[in-house]
Amino acid sequence: MNRLKKNVKILIYLFHAVLLTIVFLPLVFALVSSFRPLEDLYKYVRPLTLETFIPKNFTLDAYKDIFVKYRFGTSVMNSIFVAGVTVMAGVVINALAGFAFAKFRFPCKRLLFGIVLLTFMVPFELLSINLYSMMIDFGWVDTFLALIVPSVPNGMVIFLFRQYYLGFPDYLLETSKIDGLNWWGIFWRVVMPNSKAVCISSGLVLFLNQWESFLWPVLVTRSENMQTIQIALNSFRTQYTKEWNNIFAASIIAFLIPILIILPLQKFYVEGITSTGSKE
Hints:
The chain has helices at residues 2-33, 50-53, 61-68, 72-103, 109-119, 124-138, 144-148, 155-166, 170-178, 183-191, 196-211, 215-220, 229-232, 244-274. By secondary structure, the protein is an all-alpha fold. It folds into two domains: 2-63, no CATH class; 70-274, Orthogonal Bundle (MetI-like fold), CATH 1.10.3720.10. Helix 4 (72-103) crosses helix 8.
């Protein structure tokens, strides 16, 4: 019986190893290809040999091209700035909304929360045209305001905060009132310091939404200086062909930056998500 369990466990590990290989093989190929010259890109694909995964003519030309020729660094910094400001503003504003829905009583509370839930169920494509018209009216087209402001309120993030604050101890709020704090002071001195996990998980949701956004930046940006990283990935092409080594190099950078942010914070992300379970 123990031998059977051991064999089953080995088969499960082998199955997972095969799945992991299938998932990561394209990523490994992209990483290796980013260090090849363009003419060698598919030279060693068939048959599969050691040279398929180890570049024979190692070069950093692709990385030099994307930062010098295409000014990819500007796009990376634009995305980091837009995502960073969205996270900072979004965490505060959505936390305030979630706290209000969890702890305050006001007219049409359930109706308004239902509308909040609908906002992240409706595809963004249905809202984009009306949002774009608003950006034109405000004179925000081709500005950071157009990239940031519409992404700050987020129904999913409000829901996460609201679920978390439903379980927040009321006695802490009452004690803070007795100590003379108003609601603004309670929120900043008591609520937010005890909301670290949900703030991090919500911040990661906002960051990834902005980092991966493509349709909205395409609509509201015009100049090359305002390009975000996802738009820049589409620019590595000539009239007749695409510069795939440059695309691979830029894709690796676009992949690594969020990974480097998520990995150290994954513990808090899981804790934040699990702490917002079903509460009434």
